[in-house]
Design goal:
Residues 22-129 form the Impact N-terminal domain. One of its GO terms (cellular component) is cytoplasm. There is one protein chain. By secondary structure, the protein is α+β, with helices and mostly antiparallel strands. The protein has five helices and eleven strands, in the order E-E-E-H-E-E-H-E-H-E-E-H-E-E-H-E. It has helices at 36-49, 84-93, 113-130, 152-161, 186-194; strands at residues 6-10, 17-21, 24-32, 55-62, 70-74, 99-106, 134-138, 140-148, 165-171, 174-182, 199-204. The protein has a five-stranded antiparallel beta sheet with strand order 2-3-6-4-5, sandwiched between helices. Strand 9 and strand 10 form a beta hairpin. The longest helix is centred in the middle third of the chain and has 18 residues, at 113-130. The mean pLDDT is 92.
Length: 206
Amino acid sequence: MSTSDTYKTITKPSEETLFKEKNSKFYSYAFPVKNEDEVKEALETLRKQHSSANHCCYAYQIGTHPDTLKYRANDDGEPNNSAGMPIYGQIQSYDVTNILIAVIRYFGGVKLGVGGLITAYRTGAQLALEASKIKTKTINIEYLVAFDYKNMNKVMRIIKEKNITIVSQKLELDCQITISVRKKEAEKVKASFNSIYEVSIKELTD
């Protein structure tokens, strides 16, 4: 993954794709995921949908920063590294993140051998990615801006000037606005708010 403040992902699940090899059927899917709970949920749904399938192999990658990426590859009973890693290889080759790719196999009675399996699972993952709309998104940082009502105009002027996205706001005597700022603009924006007397800004972390 690049170290800029953008990353590539998908925003909605792909269409189902089907690949056949020597009577075995491989159904593949791609899902946008932000955490391991979402991965679990998607896999549970697929396993119910394909309750008579022999294998549900998958790989996922979560995170937008190279140092905090989480990934996992699962062969689900296929020979070691013959399914999960070929799927994960496609995630890397398309340079996408926050994504789960699952390939479901119905065994057709003819063994494919490790080489055949690697090719089949890689192809399944590639088809799922080709059926997905891959989008480039910016990495954003959220801040909480806190201030007294009397300083509202000063705060709003910066938000307007810098075209900042407001995520949520609570405007009473004590005001709080949550803003989302593109990573490369973050330091400048923070400095602008810090320069106003009686306004505090702090980064929100998950």
